[in-house]
Amino acid sequence: MLKPLTKEQTDSILRAAAGAFANKGYAHTSVRDIAKSAGVSVGVIYKYYKDKGDLFNSCVIKSLDTLDQVFEAVQSKGRFIMEMAEELITSTQSFARTDPEYFRLYHQITVSGSSLMTPEIAELIEGRTAKLYTGLMQNASETGEIRQDMDPAMIAFLFDNLLMMLHFSYTCGYYENRFKIFCGEDIGSRDEFVKEQLLKFIGGALNGLHTGL
Amino acid sequence: MLKPLTKEQTDSILRAAAGAFANKGYAHTSVRDIAKSAGVSVGVIYKYYKDKGDLFNSCVIKSLDTLDQVFEAVQSKGRFIMEMAEELITSTQSFARTDPEYFRLYHQITVSGSSLMTPEIAELIEGRTAKLYTGLMQNASETGEIRQDMDPAMIAFLFDNLLMMLHFSYTCGYYENRFKIFCGEDIGSRDEFVKEQLLKFIGGALNGLHTGL
Amino acid sequence: MLKPLTKEQTDSILRAAAGAFANKGYAHTSVRDIAKSAGVSVGVIYKYYKDKGDLFNSCVIKSLDTLDQVFEAVQSKGRFIMEMAEELITSTQSFARTDPEYFRLYHQITVSGSSLMTPEIAELIEGRTAKLYTGLMQNASETGEIRQDMDPAMIAFLFDNLLMMLHFSYTCGYYENRFKIFCGEDIGSRDEFVKEQLLKFIGGALNGLHTGL
Amino acid sequence: MLKPLTKEQTDSILRAAAGAFANKGYAHTSVRDIAKSAGVSVGVIYKYYKDKGDLFNSCVIKSLDTLDQVFEAVQSKGRFIMEMAEELITSTQSFARTDPEYFRLYHQITVSGSSLMTPEIAELIEGRTAKLYTGLMQNASETGEIRQDMDPAMIAFLFDNLLMMLHFSYTCGYYENRFKIFCGEDIGSRDEFVKEQLLKFIGGALNGLHTGL
DNA sequence: GATGAATGAGGTTTCATTCAT
DNA sequence: CATGAATGAAACCTCATTCAT
């Protein structure tokens, strides 16, 4: 079959690769297996991607692009932090159900030895989120929406930490298990509960009205 | 040279393997290199460990044993949560300087494809922490030390999430970069600041005296 | 774009292929690159030539046709051997400047593994030269122009050996370097000197008026 | 069979490789085939040689070492050029029968694309011969043993050209065929004749007592 | 029991050749 | 008929594992 790859097929390469990388890790995934599961020949992969690393990177970039859409939907101005937090959590929960690979793939880049694990890539990926969140916290701090006794950057960092762990807890094997161990086998089906609890936790952290301690 | 293996040598294997796995990742670490850097032959490694995966597992188990010591030092009864939190943070910061490999190795088991990434192992590793923290939060909730409108298990989970991210942010490449991007290049030398900020954040989250939401 | 192949294009294939084979060797030359540099599709190459080997053979044949023209210009009857030798050397020097690929390609067929390296091809290529030179030497021997104590065929062979080495020394990488090592870095710009020296050498060899030995 | 390679086996690798490279060329020789024909595993070849190129280089170096022995046997001082020439021819003829691979391998390095085809390697290989022969010609010229109207370096170069072609004509496929075409099918069994003829040719060339030109 | 060289399956990548358009 | 993307065999090379010493 020497007809040009259909859009479906080229998509299928990225989907197969993303799935394999996400689930088995970069090193345990072979290009041959990706080709087979995408229903194409090995050679064609090297027409579209320089090498295995390039294919991996493309998967990650694509997953990040998609993840970005989640956040962009939330960035509308003039909203309260906690409203945005709620939406972020809702999005995460729903997205984790429909496209878990994207979060899993994002997790892969945190792994040592990944070709993407460079400061430059980290800057590229985290830089925007960091600026965005820090800016939001800055504003919210100035308007008195949140506590003023903390560094906005640190608040942003810790806030993002909680969201990141939520991503992983819904999609990445080990974290999923851990989630259940902490919160019960059925935690995966109690989205409303999780959201409500996390919002309370974040609310307290951001508000900071606490005695002494 | 047919000398029997000394205790030092068996330790040395585990130490060499742990270091290599932690820093280069499972796939990029070769049994041969471990043997060389441990000063033993490849053969003895296969005498003590079924295969490369088994050796990796043993490293992780050992690293967890060591990490446990950090927590045990904190588990003394009758202390305030926030006191313990402070000590956990301090320990993490100091331990991340002296033995980063242990945290890095711990991070490795969260990676898909790791042979350790099974529910059983997760239970083994996280079970104790989950019970311990949940129990502590339960007590603290009952004594009014912390808020009573949240599920102790969820509090424990989110509390541990923050600590886990702190571990990684101090020791694991990508997270280290991300830490700097959010909080500045010099964040690695501002331990007191980080501790103080994190305690404020946790304090607010646990106390939860806030208005709205 | 389904345009029929013009004469220019077929020429262009052969020229591109010859250049690539000559300079990079058979194995390092890809059909795809030839097609690209000839401005045609891969498919048409396989329409005109059975396979890569066939294309190579055609290039060689063509280069030999061209080289033959050099010799034909010299074959006019009734001339002295040494006059012809001088012209052959001059032609070689000038041709090596303008079309080095032809000599390089000729060199390629001497390489083991070339599909052209068969007795039949050798006969085709060398047969004519051998007959021509041997005949010339035979005549020159009979007229007393050259020594009579040697086999004309051997003289022809050794004479051609010297010319062949001259070809290679002017055009083929390794031989070019060797030429410089023996005769100095600037030997490539001393054509008159080389010609004069080679003529003296050949002159002595053909004349053979020497004492004893 | 995991016992260390015997001397015979390691020798066999080099012999198998040399044979294959010499006869099929670098590009057409696969490491797997070499391993098979040497009766060892693929892996072991990469223990002894960094990569395929390194193996090739080692074969060439070894062949040059061996070829050098032929020349060293002739370098004794105070001998007449023509005596040495005779011995060089005799050696070449006998060596071409016993170890044709060495000459064939030498021929391979003249091929474009060979990793050994660099100016440095050429200098290494040809430099010594060039110096040696030029020196000999210089002396012979000063003592009046050979003509004084030619550049010693050019004489050395042309002299070596004739010997090189003799090597190839006895061992390298295409040149063997060409030899037969020029001098008859049975030329391979007329060593005495060839030697005598070549000596006459060289004698005349070196002596140069001729009229015209 | 310890050794470490040898094994060989399996990984990534290239490219001559085919054939649907 | 020309096109050139797709094919997939086969190349190089690595390294987990074995086993003769």
Structure write-up:
Four copies of one chain form a homotetramer. The longest helix of chain A is centred in the middle third of the chain and has 24 residues, at 119-142. The mean pLDDT of chain A is 88. Chain A is elongated and about 65 Å long. Chain A contains ten helices and no strands. Chain A has a domain at 60-207: Tetracycline Repressor, domain 2, CATH 1.10.357.10. Chain A starts with 6 loop residues before the first helix and ends in a 6-residue tail after the last helix. In chain A, helix 4 (52-72) packs across helix 6 and helix 7 crosses helix 8. The first copy, chain A, has 213 residues and is an all-alpha fold. Chain A has helices at residues 7-24, 31-38, 42-48, 52-72, 81-98, 100-108, 119-142, 152-171, 173-183, 191-207. Chains A and B meet through helix 1, helix 6, helix 7, helix 8 and helix 9 of A and helix 1, helix 6, helix 7, helix 8 and helix 9 of B. The structure holds a DNA duplex (21 and 21 nucleotides).
Keywords:
Tetracycline Repressor, domain 2; homotetramer; 213 residues; DNA-binding; mainly alpha
Topology:
The structure is a homotetramer of 213-residue chains.
Chain A: H1 7-24, H2 31-38, H3 42-48, H4 52-72, H5 81-98, H6 100-108, H7 119-142, H8 152-171, H9 173-183, H10 191-207
Chain B binds a DNA duplex (21 and 21 nucleotides) through residues 1-5, 30-32, 35, 40-44, 46-47, 51-52.
